[in-house]
Amino acid sequence: MSYHQNVEAHHRTTFRENVIMVAQQMQNPLRNAVTIVPGRGEFISIADLLGEKRARRAADRDRRNPDNPTPRSRRGIFRPEEIETGEYIDKADKWDMAMDPTSALFRANIAAVRRGEFDAILGIVESENGSFSVGQTGILGQASNGKTGSTKTPIPASQIIADGDNTGLTLDKLREVKKKLEKSNYGLEMEAQFYGLITPEQKDDLIGIAAATGTSLNAFAIEQLQTGKPTSLMGFNWIFTNRLPLDANGKRMTVFWDKSNIVAAEWEALSGDIWNDTSQKNLPYIYASCCIDATRVQDKGVYIVPCTEPA
After folding, report:
1. Phi, psi of 37, rounded to the nearest 5 degrees
2. pLDDT > 70 fraction of the chain, expressed in percent and rounded
3. How far is Cα 67 from Cα 126, in angstroms, rounded to an integer?
């Protein structure tokens, strides 16, 4: 026997408000590390990229006007497919959980969409076996260039820090990526905010760096070592995740960027609804979704640091 519950107007209002409330409680950590802009239409332009331009020397008494156009291209984001989840309510106790914002069922649906939002911004795809690979867009994926966005640009090899010694996250690697970001004119403005996305393995590497250097590394305090939570080091704000992919050589692709260099276009913030589906025996149905994607403004503002992890 099917479970029947008429979804009234007040049920829909309560459910929608609860989704918004829980979504605020379960924030995606990448949202604070990128620049969020509203998405409009099918394609939103986020940057006009200007190439390097050189002046010329004019011959004596040369009356010709120099024709020296600035190399330029456009980078933008296409409206992506929605990130969504939903399920039918076929039992009375399931209805109670669906309407309770503190229940595991309710929060699991919101968490699923938040993870999808995280993956879209980072630019990864989760496989059926739980592993991750680089996706088509986002921080790690391809950037869309040109007036129509038809030209796709992956992260150049120049933005990958060498790992010839097959090590984890070392102080030398951190120094190298910080130097490269600053030489690319990132970090020289007061507004610059650097972020590093790492897994628990690299987090342990950071704690090891602090322990090995002792009191000479002021960015780490004794309290942070005791709790195992590293603070800001070398100007990077750390975000921890288990969703970083491996590269072709089996090394973890840790990522470093400046906040202003990553733009996420949001067509729809995380929201939800509930209704009776007349095509399925009038069962109540709960739904949650968002619509967001991201890209690099300039490739030189993102670096990948491959890290070898213990077997």
Report:
1. -130, 155
2. 86
3. 50
Under a CB-based contact definition with an 8 Å cutoff, are residues 92 and 98 in contact? no
Q: How far apart, in whole angstroms, are the C-alpha atoms of residue 119 and residue 177?
A: 23
Q: Read off the pLDDT of residues 96-117 as tens digits, 9 standing for 90 and up.
A: 999 999 999 999 999 999 999 9
Cβ atoms of 283 and 89 within 8 Å: the answer is: yes
The pTM of the full predicted model, rounded to 2 decimals, is: 0.86
Could you give the CA distance from residue 58 to residue 9 in angstroms, rounded to a whole number?
A: 75
Q: Are strands 124-126 and 132-134 parallel, antiparallel or unpaired?
A: antiparallel
Residue 177's H or E segment, with its range, is helix 171-183
Q: Is the pLDDT of residue 215 over 50?
A: no
Question: What's the CA gap between 150 and 25, in Å, rounded?
Answer: 38
- Partnered with residue 239 across adjacent β-strands are 197
Domain ranges of the chain: 9-49+73-305
Instruction: Report the pLDDT value the prediction gives residue 50, as an integer from 0 to 100.
Output: 47
CA distances to 262, 274, 284 from 123, rounded to whole Å, are: 12, 30, 34
Residue 63's SS3 state is coil
Can you tell me which residue has the tokens 């979504």?
23
Q: If one looks up domain 9-49+73-305 in CATH, what number appears?
A: 3.90.1690
Residue 53 pLDDT: 57
pLDDT of residue 135: 95
Q: Which two tokens stand for residue 291?
A: 């619509």
CA 158 to CA 270: how far, in whole Å? Answer: 36
